[in-house]
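Q: What would this chain look like folded?
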Amino acid sequence: MKILIVEDDPMVRMINHRFLERIAELKDATVTESESAVAALDLPDLADYELVLLDMYLPQINGTQFLSELVQRQLHPQVIMMTAANDQQTLKEAVNYGVLDFLIKPFSFDRFQKAIDKYLKMMVVDHKTTVSQTDLDSLFLGDVTAVQSGSRKELPKGLSRLSLRKIVAALQEFPATFANQEVADHTGLSRVSTKKYLDFLAEIDYLNSEIVYQKSGRPLTKFAINQQQAQAIHDYL
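A: My prediction, written as structure tokens:
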């Protein structure tokens, strides 16, 4: 995952960068800082960035002009607008360009994390072939319905609900069986992390597992979704 911070204030750039580092799901992300929209537009790998943290008031080209240029180049990263501007026109322009969230400075880490959570949920939905109403409610309504109904179950210590959603979405893309290394490669998480989630999913019978003995090397554990227990995961998402 590649994240771009476009902000002319070096102190604010540093704060945003440190906020990103505090979020476990982004620990493997590559973060690039740019002091202006002009400099950002000159990046040779601009098309590779999945998320942009964008200031509105920038030298030469402001935030909405930057968004307009992205659209002209047919680039559509998720964008979280971060600005001191709180007027209706600025908000309307940002919304019209489809920004994912809008943070008015100064904002807390908790509010920043909620914006990132929304992005991570969007990525889970984006990687699915089909989506359910539960997926859409989680994205657009947060976890309100699940919390109100009391249906969500607690995860074991050390497991993150957002990482679980990401992994479950990835598993649904595999045609049949898969190994831990394949899941790690697909999600960008470490093998140690994905193994914990796969073991948990096997414990609740969402996954079946079998040991495959190879001609050389250590035995390999292969997993497959247990279609008869596919609903078992919903209470944890």
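The longest helix spans residues 109-126.
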